[in-house]
Amino acid sequence: MAMRFLPLTDYLQVTRASTTNARTETGVIANIDANQPVFEFDGEGRALGLRIEGPSANLLRHSSDFTNAIWEKSSGVTVQAAAGQAPDGSNSATKIDFADGAANLYQRVDNLASGANHAFAMWMRAVSGTADITLGGVNGPSQHAVTLGEKWQRVGFAEVASATSRYPKISTALSGAGASILVWNAQLEAAPVASSDMISNGIPAARNGDDVMLDLTTGWFAPGAGTLFFDLALPAAWQGIWRVMQLYSTSLNDDHLDLGYDSVANQLRISLRKAGQQVITQSLYGVLVPGARNRVAIAFDDDEIAVATVNGVLKSPGGFALPRNFAHLRIGSYGGASGFLNGYVRALSYWPGRLGDARLMELCSGNAA
């Protein structure tokens, strides 16, 4: 059975009402236009894949202007704007000098959801050598130690907000030693893990989610049996139910095949709907690993849906015929409105038939040719 090998961009349709920021192949963070796919790279220029993120907001104000009065500082801190090249290539990095002792710089943030997860992230580097910095202040007087070198790195933490007003803080509380660092764009989100940079001015900055879809009506997708394989790079944490993919006809409320992940139950789940009726809703007990690459395959035919991971092949009960009218493939969200992947699709492959279990296991283990 031949694999349909196709350039993803030939059939990719991305809807995102806002611009977004991403690291390019040159290592510089650049602005990506609305409704354009985001293919991101790491600091060494290696491809991370197609990024799919949900909507979010940076709750900090003046997130990259640390000279603004909204950033309060102790007497042992001096701040110098435009002190060097920032991760976006501009001369907008800010130099912060901490005197010996527990010097600190912080911003008060109100209207947080007390008891909910919040993620803080910030670009930092030492001016020279190394520097020991402490981050915290969302969950009470929390303290997270970070050691910086002379390369830019995005550091941070995630924790529960202990009150509706909190004080995300940069300090030298743990080391007590003086430090000189460069910083760029601090970010606080109501999320279990930080997402891409949103730069705020006087008000919090927001970003729309990535609605990613492939058109199946151009002849490359065959009705009936098939296999889809996804090579995913997943975030370090997640919440709720997020989606790997949905095949559907005209809307997600009619004929569809849905593959998602329940992060509370920590298991994969499938849904099959046909002719207005729910045919299958099943949890498959397959576990994915946060913060790592995960390979997932879904093979479908009349009377069987099989989902494979590196740990095995999980199957549905039979007694049904597949819909033959799938016209769209959505990946990484539920209709572009919820359940976002918040990670990367590194590869997507399709076969016009149900691959055998042994082949599915080869794909998911990374041993397939």
TrEMBL record:
SUPFAM superfamilies: Concanavalin A-like lectins/glucanases (SSF49899). This is LamG-like jellyroll fold domain-containing protein. It comes from Thalassospira marina.
